[in-house]
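chain below, 88 aa
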Amino acid sequence: MDAEILRVAREALYLALLLSIPVLAASLVVGLVISLLQAVTQVQEQTLSFVPKLVAALLALAAAGPWIGSELARFTTRLWNTIPTLFP
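prediction:
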């Protein structure tokens, strides 16, 4: 029983990491490009880096949303099917 609970917890953490990758990657790439542009132009405006990263994160979330939803639904279905075996 303990091994099964640990397996479910490990899978949940892995899923959280996997589902956060599209948004984090988009923000990272846009942040890097904006930082490079700020270094080249010597414009150090804080909102110049925040707004594009926010837009990129929202676009990545919109693009990856169906995949994220399906993965969450798959995990939830398997979790609900596993619960009766965890607590007999």
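Residues 2-86 form one domain. The chain has a mean pLDDT of 91.
thats it, cya
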